[in-house]
Write a structure and sequence with these properties.
Radius of gyration: 31 Å
Bound molecules: adenosine monophosphate, magnesium ion
Number of helices: 7
């Protein structure tokens, strides 16, 4: 039985190197950048006003006070989007708005609230307070310098990063190709939702949740029909899915039962089994195999075991496939609100709920067939074997949303 870290290392080592494609920026959210992006512009690309107000020379208004304002001659107006032909000379000012280019000669902007315009003297502005040179001015390149690195290969394209790339004028980005992931559910007891349950059967629920997790990991899920617990049916389903996908994620049929056919079917078609037991709970039986540069992840059928092993061992592989640097679930520091006890001999990744105050609550009953606690959880606490963690203990939470 492999330790978790060893299993993860073996999985990641088997992931093919990412291949690159260009996507439009509007389709890039959640994708992984494949090449460094350097800025083709300074940002801002010109000095501009941070306020509605007046561009002036700070030296002209050092003595300005409400009771003894400095009078400046208004020589023009620059709406945002326009450019001013002239310049600001001693004793003059120019009306600006937020984002208007700063005219040459000006070194500061006094905000409108610190000024007064007499109704009968439209060409004159009274300045009521001094400004420092540079005040209310957004300097060229203070945000981003031409040629500086905006994002590195392996970075996830978040909304914030996409906004930055758009701000420097990019329309497309090189990203890692998304693996296509076939989702199969095995089990003669499984029934598609939509019809009343046949006695003894259960609704199949793993593929739909695994498809959601797959999309969250930036990969493309393809859902295949249910597979009965029959060797020939299992083999045929694997062959079909491998012909259309980069990786296959199956659920069920990986234990030691007489009706568990995933390993056998995979080896029969020429797949190389890499390992099939990991010392974690839930999810000890977990098949990992390689087939012609493609990967097989055989998850246990119990929904909780399937979801937890997906998050711990499949999600990282799908992210790495796209070239992501950061592939583990984000870790948040929390403090236990109640004790968590692992009586077992394996590390138990327990379903927990991390609240906004950083308190960690058990998400409910921890048995691997209990789906309500999976639904209530937003994270996993990694509890070592034979360990009782007391309320108040600090615990890192592997978080998802
Ligand atoms: P198995 O790993 O095939 O032995 O399945 C373990 C348990 O999970 C059994 O109770 C199955 O009925 C259940 N199970 C297996 N596959 C699914 C599935 N796709 N959806 C819901 N429950 C499942
Ligand atoms: Mg089964």
């Amino acid at each position: 039985m492999l330790e978790f870290e060893e299993a993860l290392a073996r999985v990641l080592a088997a992931v093919p190197a990412p291949t690159r494609e260009i996507v439009s920026l509007s389709e890039a959210a959640g994708r992984v950048l494949a090449e460094p992006i350097r800025s083709p512009l300074d940002l801002p690309s010109f000095d501009n006003s941070a306020m509605d107000g007046y561009a002036l020379r700070a030296a002209d208004v050092t003595s300005a006070k409400p009771e003894s304002p400095v009078s400046l001659c208004l020589t023009g107006k620059v709406p945002a989007g326009d450019n001013f032909a002239g310049s600001v000379t001693a004793g003059t000012c120019v009306r600006l708005f937020t984002g208007s280019p700063l005219p040459p000669g000006a070194d500061a902007v006094v905000m409108q609230e610190e000024t007064r315009v007499q109704p009968n003297a439209a060409g004159e502005v009274l300045i009521l307070a001094p400004v420092r040179p540079g005040e209310n001015v957004r300097l060229r390149a203070e945000d981003v310098k031409l040629g500086s690195t905006l994002a590195k290969p392996g970075d996830l394209l978040t909304a914030g990063r996409i906004g930055l790339l758009a701000a420097v004028g990019l329309t497309g980005v090189p990203v890692g190709r998304q693996p296509v992931v076939g989702l199969l559910a095995t089990g003669s007891e499984l029934q598609e939702p939509g019809q009343p349950l046949v006695p003894g059967r259960i609704y199949e629920s793993n593929r739909i949740a695994l498809a959601a997790f797959t999309k969250r990991a930036g990969a493309v899920p393809v859902t295949f029909p249910l597979v009965a617990d029959v060797l020939t049916a299992t083999s045929a389903a694997l062959v079909e899915a491998f012909s259309r996908c980069d990786a296959i994620v199956t659920s069920g049929g990986v234990s030691v039962g007489k009706m568990d056919f995933i390993k056998q079917a995979f080896e029969q078609m020429g797949g190389e089994l890499q390992f099939w037991k990991v010392a974690i709970k839930p999810g000890r039986p977990f098949v990992f195999g390689r087939y012609r540069g493609k990967l097989l992840f055989g998850l246990p059928g119990n929904p909780v075991s399937a979801f937890v092993t997906f998050l711990l061992l499949v999600r990282p592989a799908l992210l790495r496939w796209q070239g992501a640097t950061d592939v583990s679930l984000p870790v948040h520091a929390g403090v236990l609100a109640e004790p968590l006890v692992n009586h077992g001999e394996r590390r138990h990744f327990m379903r927990v709920r991390l609240d906004p105050a950083g308190k960690v609550h058990s998400a409910g009953v921890q048995a691997s067939h209990i789906q309500s606690s999976m639904a209530a959880a937003n994270g996993l606490a990694d509890v070592p074997p034979n360990t009782a963690l007391a309320a108040g203990a600090p615990v890192p939470v592997l978080h998802w949303d």
